[in-house]
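User: Structure with 4'-deoxy-4'-aminopyridoxal-5'-phosphate, tokens only please.
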Amino acid sequence: MNDSVAWRHITPKVEAINHRIRELEWEPARRNNFVAYTPEVGTPYVHLDGERFLMMSGYGYVGLNGDPRVLEAAKAAVDTYGTGTPGVRALAGTVPLHEELEGEIAKFFGREGALVFSSGYAANVGTIGALVGAGDTIFLDKLDHASIVDGAQLSGAKLTRFRHNDPKHLDSRLAAADKSGTLLVIVDSVYSMDGDIAPLPELREVCDRHGALLMVDEAHALGTIGATGRGIEEHFNYEVKADIKVGTLSKAVPSNGGYLCGSEAFLQYLKRLARPFLFSAALNPAAVGAALETIRILDREPWRVTHAQTESARFRSIVQEAGFDTGLSQTAVVPLIVGSDENAWDFATASRKAGVIGLPVMTPAVEKGRARLRIAITAAHSKDDVDAGAEAFITAARQLRLIGG
Ligand code: PMP
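Assistant:
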């Protein structure tokens, strides 16, 4: 590491992180997270060092990564538009395909319009920063995604946290807030490490009573909840609506990018004020083509959503029956909670030896003592895959005495 004077405060931090990595990775088999698996596209399998594994921790909820129609659409977009865009959206970067994708997203969600960002992270940061600033107050669920937290911090608004999925606590926070500015409540529709769903009707009621805007991040809700995978509003039978809906094109949709749904007037406002939209390159054509085709397929093939919902419920009951703590899970995201960070490493390693990948999530990403393998069941997993995966996790956990039996 550079030991010049200018680096004096950074070098010790870099060394500390590298020391911690060496501590955790003293055994090559423990290198679980930053491993470059080669996917066997179109299947839930991956390859590493000549071996084939069943991947049970991926985000491809509707199983469309590698679908021939999506591959074809990405290739056609490259043939027509090239591999890059000549600038940011406001300066030569917009191609007709961006607008087609925005139209398709709006139609899919039954909204007036949509705006596409270069990532879900950028969609959150850009939207929040355009909505609020000094003099306003943001209310975040304690488990909200980092991109929401970063957006809130960058915005300059006052930041308040409320207890996870607790509308009563939000109510008391709102009651105590300064009402002179905008009040903005932001929640994840589905929480990525726990797989539980935000109580939208109750949150809506509390927000309405206090005159607060309600924004939802649908990153893990698209393709997983609602009868046809349209997310949290569909999950609650369209009883209530969120004011602002943000999502990503990198999970159920096997691409990159983020989106926001809203009225035309609001989108025009965002196009001029959302800094990641204004100052970061337009989404590349291959990503746009893949996303557009995926949304179209999802609209025609709701069975993908039903399959993942049925199989995740079945997986959850098999592992619960075997004695696993699956925490708050109600969706395709099913954590297998095993206590200490060390337990999670050992469990991931033993599962991998049994041919199944379950990626460990530890502190600080989750509370101390609640480390887990974060499992996600997708439409790419057949019933046999789910059974095989469950059996491998159960056997590995029994060997390590993480569960009884
Ligand atoms: N929101 C949530 C809830 C997420 O889980 C993620 C990605 N992990 C994002 C936003 C960011 O999405 P992207 O990867 O497209 O930047």
